[in-house]
């Protein structure tokens, strides 16, 4: 359900690396998501290193998205 005046899009920010280790989520979604990009003010940052057992999801409010069309 959408609320009038609010954007229903959500952008997930998946970093290639976290500190100095590879992010396994990035490796898993890199190819399937390359062509599916949507501009949005709402962003989540998602990370998982090889040593972590769970995925880390954080709200990313400060960064701005630049989209090439």
TrEMBL record:
Residues 7-64 form the AAA-type ATPase N-terminal domain. It holds the Pfam family AAA_assoc. InterPro entries: AAA_N_dom. This is AAA-type ATPase N-terminal domain-containing protein.
């Amino acid at each position: 359900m959408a609320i009038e005046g609010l954007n229903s899009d959500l952008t997930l920010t998946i970093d290639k690396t976290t500190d100095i280790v590879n992010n396994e989520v990035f490796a898993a979604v890199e190819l399937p998501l390359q062509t599916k990009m949507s501009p949005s003010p709402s962003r989540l940052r998602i990370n998982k290193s090889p040593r972590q057992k769970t995925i880390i999801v954080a709200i990313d409010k400060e960064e701005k998205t630049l989209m090439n069309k």
